[in-house]
Amino acid sequence: MKKEKYYVIGVMAGSSMDGLDVVKACFIKSGDDFSFEIIHAETVEYSQAILSELQKADKYTNDEKTTLDTEFGNWIGKTLNRIGHFRNTDLIAVHGHTVEHDPAKGISWQLGSGQAISQLTKCTTITDFRTLDISLGGQGAPLVPFADYMLFSEYEACLNLGGICNISLRNERKAWDISPCNQVLNYFSKQLGFTYDPDGALAKKGKFNKELYERLNEIDYFHKTPPKSLPNNFINSKMLDSTDPMDGLQTYTQFISDKISNELERYAIQNVLVTGGGAHNQYLIDLIQTKTSCSIDVPDPQTIDFKEALIFAFLGLKRIRNEINVLSSVTGASKDSSSGVIHFPE
Fold first, then answer.
1. What's the total number of domains in the chain?
2. Do 151 and 294 share a domain, yes or no?
3. CA distance 3 to 86
4. End-to-end alpha carbon distance in the chain
5. Are 339 and 326 in contact (CB under 8 A)?
6. What is the pLDDT of residues 174-215, one digit of tens each?
């Protein structure tokens, strides 16, 4: 059987704002199946100027966001040019920094101008993977599950512990955001002078705040059924508490592990692949394992850290082939779609 090869760069600006994840991957198509090889992967730290702008972006006017959209796109394009690896690259797929996500209002805006990136790199670039699905009545999220089903089919579920924790279930063809994760854990860690909580060591020292835990459990989102998605601005406005940061880490780590284990048990999941920065948090992983009978597989560090960038590279490939890359059974849209806006260098 003839095999087709595609070389794609995937770029992910996550909600935890710990840098830009960049992957170059080779996807091999054999019949209806795809396999992959990661050729290059790295995380690029944001410049202080860009990081400061992104942290304030949700409070900007639309005109200011538009300006930052171009500035961030230029920064991404220049960063990719510096990294190189464009030889034999077919396209670039970018998930920018989410500054707004409100499906009820038909809005999802990821900063990072695709046209600016395409112009600077001289490479076809795909961005804005969410808007079409939202126009079809969907949540515009989660987008990762389609590629999970295609690239990691040996697992019943894939769990991403990124800024937001989300899960995709293979058999049910369902996926949703479970809870915040690194976005809140990093928030408290920074108050203690750390970028993140290494191995959950800080959380272990904290005291469980029952009042905070109960208040979190009262939030409507956690009583809704999928499809559902958790916007960054909702977390920033509703879930970042002023409690003692050590106690906050302990309480949130317990809360996150409870929410995850509840879903694994609810759907009787036998094995789950765990990736994202939170997979390095051994305390969180141990808590999840003690609360569920599911077999938890934490893979190699490269897969842990770069799976989302790899996923968007694959979604970009499906888009350029005009093939389905977003599932209505996951997002609640009226139909499946091939989502993403294609930008060609002039």
1. 2
2. yes
3. 22
4. 37
5. yes
6. 889 999 999 899 999 999 999 999 899 999 999 999 999 999
